[in-house]
Amino acid sequence: MTQQTLSSTQLFGGAVSVADGIVKVLQPAALQSEDMDRLVHEAVFGEPVEREQARWLIWEIGQEVGVRPATIHDLYIARGEGKCGGFTVPAINVRGASYDTARAIFRQAIALDAGAFLLEIARSEIAYTEQRPAEYVTVMLAAAMREGFTGPVFIQGDHFQVNAKKFAVDPVTEVDAVKQLVREAVSAGFYNIDVDTSTLVDLAQPTLEEQQRRNYENCVDITLEVRAAEPRGVTISVGGEIGEVGTENSTPEELEAFMEGFNRTLEQRAPGTAGLSKISVQSGTSHGGIVLPDGSIAEVALDLDTLATLSTIARERYGMAGAVQHGASTLPDTAFGNFPRTETAEIHLATNFQNMLFDHLPESLRSEIYAWLDVNAKDERKATDSDEQFYYKTRKKALGPFKRQLWALPSEVKVALGKAYDDKFAFLFRQLGIAGTRETVARFVKPTALRRKMPVDGVPSVAAAPDDADLSD
Questions:
Q1: Is residue 215 domain-shared with residue 276, that is, in the same domain?
Q2: Which listed site, 95, 191, 312, 440, has its alpha carbon 20 to 30 Å from 75?
């Protein structure tokens, strides 16, 4: 895509014009065409100059038609004040075939009049899926417009996590790496950030206060970086985490120790600064589930009482939306209706959608990916792993290297996968109570219009943060 093309009145058949760096959309319905497919492909796979121009154009078109990245902060604070509730916000990690996956999400959001959902990617996933924040935001916005969705788009940085091993060696450099990712992500349009310093909890300390100290102090430090990076008119939704997923279940006492320490430290360092809108807890799940030798997933002892209790404390004592449940996508279908009943604020869903993608791949491509894993992920294979366990645990690492192939699946595969995704997202949206939440979102969320200057070269405006694929996702 050249500068001449960007300035042409023939873009989208003349329905979009670009003149003197100003984008106008004359016919929004034209965005629901293959022209958007071509534009987003350029934004992902194009050469640097064309890529950056395509990303800018998608952002500006979205600003023009009301498809804007937004913060869910005000909705969550309203929930903490008892002004809304009865639903659980799904935070969906879009890893592979991202454009087609996101299109299915937006299709079901339109069909069910849903507005309260998040699209997210973790620090680890950014690395192994090869989706930097600017690309991820672009793809999500393009998918929304391709399906005709309008309204706030909640894009979240999931598990912006501190690596405990690296922290032990050089704490300043490791925390600075997360701060750099914050700057990159916020600049791209991530207006929801989950700060995860739960890896720093030190259970060897004698009191809960001391166990949580490194967690809350570093969470405050990174939260202040988030606040410093906020664009005009945006209060980013920030989440904290009190227990690393996959460890012992969280307790009310741990929640109180973390929140008291966090709020006290934040007020000392930056009086009046907005704090957290939610808190992630551990209640019996693990990321990706526990895979058995035959490839099936072990049943999970989900502690719903813990979720309900911690959500109540989070709302009533600290004014947050409630507790957040990670590692939920591989739970049985019968589990999801429990989350709205316990007033769980948010659940994170990732692995099952990845499983569905791999289940629909042509056999030749799946075999090629598994052969690649045999070579490139062999160090991750335990002596006791069956083939099913090894491929299940490691195949996410192939999503980046095989990104082009996953975007270019045969049409019949895309149709079948799209139908499967439609059914799954419709089921989850109904079970989680977010059908019909569009009006609730509109009541509390007013996305800020943030226009950008047309890029003149192929250099991103903010440098990429250091990668780290060996973290929670």
A1: yes
A2: 95
pLDDT in tens, 184-225: 999 999 999 999 999 999 999 999 999 999 999 999 999 999
Identify whether residues 288 and 373 lie together within a single domain.
no
Q: What is the pLDDT of residues 26-77, one digit of tens each?
A: 999 999 999 999 999 999 999 999 999 999 999 999 999 999 999 999 999 9
Same domain assignment for residues 119 and 186? yes
Asked whether residue 231 falls in the same domain as residue 211, the answer is yes
Beta bridge partners of 93: 120
Task: Report the alpha-carbon distance of residue 405 to residue 408 in Å, rounded.
Answer: 5
Question: If pLDDT is split at 50, 70 and 90, which confidence band does 5 have?
Answer: very low
Q: Which domain holds residue 369?
A: 362-398
Among candidates 138, 136, 141, which has minimal Cα distance to 123? 136
Do 331 and 372 lie in a common domain?
no
CA distance 109 to 102: 11
Has residue 287 got a pLDDT over 70?
Answer: no
Domain at 230, CATH number: 3.20.20.70
| pLDDT confidence tier of residue 326, bands split at 50, 70 and 90 | confident
- Of 330, 321, 316, 319, the residue nearest 280 (C-alpha): 321
- 37-40: long-range contacts, CB 8 A cutoff, minimum separation 24: 37/99, 37/146, 39/1, 39/142, 40/99, 40/138, 40/139, 40/142, 40/143, 40/146
Task: Count the domains in the chain.
Answer: 3
What distances in angstroms separate CA 127 from CA 51, 271, 290, 339, one per listed residue?
A: 19, 35, 23, 30
251/244 Cα distance (integer angstroms) = 13
Query: How does pLDDT run across 249-269, given as a tens digit for each residue?
Result: 889 999 999 999 999 999 999
Same domain, 343 and 392: no
